[in-house]
Design a protein that fits this description.
- The chain is α+β, with helices and mostly antiparallel strands.
- The chain contains 13 helices and 15 strands.
- The chain folds into 2 domains: 158 residues, 2-Layer Sandwich (Endonuclease, Chain A); 193 residues, ph1033 like domains (ph1033 like fold).
- The strands form 2 sheets. Strands 8, 9, 10, 11, 12, 13, 14 and 15 form an 8-stranded mixed sheet that branches. The protein has a 7-stranded mixed sheet with strand order 1-7-6-5-2-3-4, sandwiched between helices.
- It starts with a strand and ends in a 6-residue tail after the last helix.
- About 5% of the residues have low confidence.
């Protein structure tokens, strides 16, 4: 096995690697500065140059990263994406894989004591590329020079006010745990016509409803006839998305879809719970952000008349949800549909799952009927 442990001389090792093969550079590194980037580009412009780094403006404010390095990468044809909380360092330089504690900074390559390995073993290289590709496909959209210009403006204003070291914000994407509102928009698996579909959950694992609960009682309790609630602002749901409304139930433990509606994208202020909302439903103190629903339809009778999410997962497996289908395709990340929505308020459906669920929901409406407009009209509605 071609494998070498290294604890010093990282600049020399990187210089040697890029001199040997400069055609394909894939970098995962939180902190990046201009001079080490120039080292990577010393041989010339690579055919492929992809970088995953941090987009935390505080890193630029305190100088551990600099925007000039990002500009230089883009000028050489590089693509750059940002990940929140990134700490990994991986350099795939042609036929060489380097995993190290060293950032692409002057201190990382010279002053700090860093440790890692260098390998040209085909198996190790393949595993490293698999990791990089999985992270890349979950890391948002490519950075642009216009966006960097905006960052530089924020940094200048903060510096002129003496606030350069205050929190300026992190514009990267959170990739773990997977969040339903941070799916890479360039990779969305869309429904025909560019639509979206989600299953929105009500209830918690320790607070499951009996399957015999009347659906109307659940609609009244949740307020799901006009708003679906989230613990943080749901930025991914667009106007026109299909929202399947569900409840966690017991005996057996399952999630049952009992309603369907059309979403209006969240608007801050308009779609925040009011004091009156929280007084009526105190649990909204922890779930205060809304996706409003238009034209809701609910299955009549009891929750058991709805559609089992367990049946959907059994029928479609990894193709049930956008995240599991994507991870299966890239070879990285969770592919178990039972884990795709843990600790989340909603889960994004693939087109085939949305079609499967719609067909069965329509069948349930024919079999059991739907809650009438008059019954829904008796419920509380926003003023």
């Amino acid at each position: 096995m071609d494998f070498q442990l290294v604890d010093q001389g990282w600049e020399a090792e990187i210089r040697k690697a890029v001199s040997h093969d400069h055609s394909d550079l894939c970098i995962v590194c939180p902190f990046i500065q201009k001079r080490p980037v120039e080292l990577l580009l010393q041989v010339g412009k690579p055919q492929v140059l992809r970088v995953v780094t941090r987009f935390n403006l505080d890193d630029f404010a305190c100088g551990v990263s600099d925007t000039e390095a990002l500009r230089l990468l883009i000028s050489k044809g590089g693509q750059i994406r940002g990940v929140k909380g990134l700490h990994a360092k991986l350099y795939i330089l042609g036929d060489c894989a380097i995993s190290t504690s060293a950032n692409l900074t002057d201190k990382g390559l010279h002053d700090n004591h860093e440790f890692g390995f260098i390998s040209r073993d085909a198996g190790i290289l393949w595993k490293c590329r698999q990791y990089f590709n999985g992270l890349w496909h979950r890391a948002g959209i490519d950075l642009t020079l216009d966006r960097i210009d905006g960052w530089d403006g924020q940094l200048r204003r903060a510096g002129s006010l003496g606030n350069a070291y205050q929190k300026l914000g992190d514009e990267g994407v959170r990739v773990w745990p997977e969040a339903e509102d941070e799916v890479d928009p360039t990779l969305e698996d869309e429904l025909p016509g560019g639509g979206q579909a989600f299953v929105k959950f009500f209830g918690e694992s320790e607070n499951r409803a009996p399957a015999s609960l009347p659906v109307r009682d659940e609609v009244d309790r949740s307020g799901s006839h006009w708003a679906l609630t989230y613990s943080r602002r749901p930025s991914a749901v667009r106007d026109g998305a299909t929202m399947f409304i569900s409840r966690l139930v017991a005996n057996p433990s399952d999630i049952v879809v009992y309603g369907r509606g059309t979403a209006s994208a969240h608007v801050a202020g308009r779609d925040d719970a009011t004091a009156a909302d929280i007084t009526r439903r105190p649990w909204k103190h922890h779930w205060p952000y809304y996706i409003r629903i238009e034209d809701p339809v609910f299955v009549a009778g009891i929750l058991q008349n709805g559609i089992s999410l367990t049946d959907l997962k059994g029928a479609l497996g990894v193709n049930s949800f956008v995240t599991t289908k994507r991870n299966a395709a890239t070879g990285y990340g969770n592919t178990d549909p039972n884990r795709a929505y843990l600790q989340q308020g909603a889960v994004r459906l693939t087109p085939e799952a949305a079609a499967w669920l719609s067909e069965r929901f329509d069948s349930a409406l024919k079999r059991h009927g739907s809650i009438s407009r008059e019954q829904l009209g008796d419920l509380d509605w926003p003023i």
